[in-house]
Design goal:
There is one protein chain. This protein has 14 helices and no strands. By secondary structure, it is mostly helical. The chain has one domain. Helix 6 (81-104) runs antiparallel to helix 8 and helix 9 runs parallel beside helix 14. The protein starts with a helix and ends with a helix.
Length: 267
């Protein structure tokens, strides 16, 4: 299983490197831009007039200051850009692990070796898990390095930034598991990408609309987006609610996908 894991990581190392460079540049750009927004009362007044649903999607509570370090990072990074980047990376990798390799005809070569499908499924999903954690770590390390020079640590503990990064990674982990499960169970990479992407987009939209549509407030309770927003790690730090429901759900989905992969025939 370790060999399967290492092989998968090696094959995706260039992609991981490119994503890591992009992550550093993106976080660096946001950090450098913060002084231009810091304590801008006019901008805070403008943002405060937005509808509650828009504020929710920006990660801002009513009355929260957009130009404070917490508000700036939440609305420009943790509520949208970072989760989407992690989600796209993880879903793409997860959809490839079984279904993509199967469509390319290279999975059969791997299975021709003395390795069980159980080990292939677990090893490949472990590779997704580790690389997603690594990309989240790149974001966390970049924030930690730039927080003090950019003034982002003013009233905002660096530990809370790390907690918000962890929560975003956990949210993306769920959708990666969905893509893995669908791909492993069907052998179709397009289906894996479509299902995971559709659920992710629907969850994000529901999270915003639920502030104004009462029936959706019950539906959103099952959404990884809501778990992340509701835990509010940028203000409360790392709590069980900010990562445990997402990780537990992802593990169950990955296990279901591996079982389906073991039981079906290759396409």
């Amino acid at each position: 299983m370790i060999a399967v894991f290492g092989h998968a990581v090696t094959r995706r190392r260039l992609s991981f490197l490119m994503w890591s460079i992009g992550m550093v540049l993106m976080v660096g750009l946001l950090a450098v831009a913060f002084p231009a927004f810091n304590d801008n009362s006019e901008l805070d007044s403008t943002i405060a007039k937005l509808p509650p649903s828009v504020l929710r999607l920006l990660g801002l509570a009513p009355g929260a200051a957009f130009t404070s370090p917490a508000g700036y990072l939440e609305s420009n990074l943790f509520a949208n850009v970072l989760p989407v980047m992690l989600l796209v990376f993880a879903v793409g990798f997860a959809a490839w692990t079984i279904a993509g390799d199967e469509a390319a005809g290279t999975l059969e070569l791997l299975l021709a070796n003395p390795v069980s499908r159980w080990k292939v499924g677990i090893g490949r999903f472990a590779a997704v898990t580790v690389t997603l954690a690594g990309l989240s770590g790149v974001c966390a390390a970049t924030l930690a390095a730039l927080a003090v020079p950019a003034g982002l640590d003013d009233g905002l503990p660096i530990g809370h930034m790390m907690a918000a990064t962890t929560s975003a990674g956990a949210m993306a982990f769920v959708f990666a598991a969905i893509a893995f499960a669908v791909g492993a169970g069907t052998g179709s990479r397009p289906a894996a990408l479509a299902v995971a992407s559709a659920i992710a987009v629907a969850g994000f939209v529901i999270e915003g609309l639920a502030e104004q549509v009462e029936p959706l407030r019950q539906v959103r309770r099952f959404s990884p987006w809501h778990w992340m927003f509701h835990a509010d790690p940028i203000h409360h730090g790392l709590t069980l609610g900010s990562w445990l429901p997402a990780v537990a759900t992802a593990v169950v989905l990955a296990a279901a996908g591996t079982i389906a992969f073991v039981r079906r025939d290759l396409r």
